[in-house]
Design goal:
The complex is a heterodimer of chains A (about 110) and B (about 110). By secondary structure, chain A is mainly beta. Chain A has strands at about 5, 10-15, 20-25, 30-40, 45-50, 55-60, 60-65, 70-75, 85-95, 100-105, 105-110. Chain A is built from no helices and eleven strands. In chain A, a hairpin with a 2-residue loop joins strand 6 (about 55-60) and strand 7 (about 60-65). The model of chain A has no long low-confidence stretch (mean pLDDT about 95). Chain B is mainly β. Chain B contains no helices and eleven strands. In chain B, the strands form two sheets. In chain B, strands 2, 4, 5, 6, 9, 10 and 11 form a seven-stranded mixed sheet that branches. In chain B, strands 1-3-8-7 form a four-stranded antiparallel sheet, with no helix packed on it. The radius of gyration of chain B is 13 Å and the shape is globular. The relative contact order of chain B is 0.34. The model of chain B has no long low-confidence stretch (mean pLDDT about 90). Classes of the chains: A mainly beta (about 110), B mainly beta (about 110).
């Protein structure tokens, strides 16, 4: 049962344009969401997170949007840069006690110069 | 600041040989600790997690085991490796409490031949 889904395995975007990566979840208990960036043969790096009490969180070029009613979140990268080319993982967890973090299968972003 | 290290970074082991991957966290106490494996097309799969010394929970049945002999040390082991154990293994930690981010180590490439 895939509780966190990233339905687009890959995405290509021109440098300078916006990259939009999407993520859907099924577990209504999830209340904290994260995005990670991963280069080949390296550990994932935390990018940005959002709590379910918010619908938007921004950090520089990265913005995460959360639509709780649709159980959908998205990561916007503006402007996209070649160094953003990597695999992006969406993740979700629920608060309190031990938090098991569930990851999506990832979206490979290629930013074309 | 907190840091996480895992080793070795790469290893090639014959089928039937033992395995030991080690991970340590510095700069924090009583962290939650995790072992993940990244498999092609399957994202990040949680193998084990630990909320305290000697407390290990397994997420999936497998040929591997985990131990936490000290507060900030997490070890992934196998008595006899299988070909299917090949993959990229990631250690991670998070702080106890709600809405916390998990942070990954550099990863270890295991090739079983």
């Amino acid at each position: 049962d895939q509780q966190v889904k990233q339905n687009s395995p890959s995405l290509s975007v021109q440098e300078g344009r916006i990259s939009i990566l999407n993520c859907d979840y099924t577990n209504s208990m999830f209340d904290y969401f994260l995005w990670y960036k991963k280069y080949p043969a390296e550990g994932p790096t935390f990018l940005i997170s959002i709590s379910s009490i918010k619908d938007k969180n921004e950090d520089g070029r990265f913005t995460v949007f959360l639509n709780k009613s649709a159980k959908h979140l998205s990561l916007h990268i503006v402007p996209s840069q070649p160094g953003d080319s990597a695999v992006y993982f969406c993740a979700a967890t629920n608060s309190g006690g031990y938090q098991k973090v569930t990851f999506g299968t990832g979206t490979k972003l290629q930013v074309i110069p | 600041s907190q840091t996480i290290h895992q080793w070795p970074a790469t290893l090639v082991q014959p089928v039937g040989s033992p395995l030991s991957l080690e991970c340590t966290v510095e700069g924090t106490s009583n962290p939650n600790l995790y072992w993940y494996r990244q498999a092609a097309g399957r994202g990040l799969q949680l193998l084990f997690y630990s909320v305290g010394i000697g407390q290990i929970s397994s997420e999936v049945p497998q040929n591997l085991s985990a131990s936490r002999p000290q507060d900030r040390q997490f070890i992934l082991s196998s008595k006899k490796l299988l070909l299917s154990d090949s993959g990229f293994y990631l250690c991670a930690w998070s702080q106890t409490g709600s809405g916390n981010t998990i942070y990954f180590g550099e990863g270890s490439w295991l090739t079983v031949v």
